[in-house]
Hints:
Elements: H1 12-21, E1 25-31, H2 36-46, H3 52-58, E2 59-65, E3 71-75, E4 78-81, H4 82-88, E5 96-100
Parallel strand pairs: 1-2
Antiparallel strand pairs: 1-5, 3-4
Amino acid sequence: MPSWFTDSFLDVAEDAQDALDENKTVLLYFHLDGCPYCDAMLTQNFKSGENLAFIKKHFSVVAVNIRGSREITMSESESKTEQALSEMLAVKYTPTIIFFR
């Protein structure tokens, strides 16, 4: 993942507040290791390309592996693994982008 992606503690509410403080929107980038389409999106949009400056300016990007085991906190009473969150949000294909504000 690019070094400029948000260094998140995977607390979505906290990430959303931090992004709001910077006048940005949280962009959850759902990916899968080894996915050629994910690699293409990273290369063409997050590492270079004409949209890179726009994305950096307007979005706080958090990478989520759809088969990952890191805990993501959704609220004080709810946390899920990356995989469980992907299932809850019905992410079936990668890459998938979901915006949080």
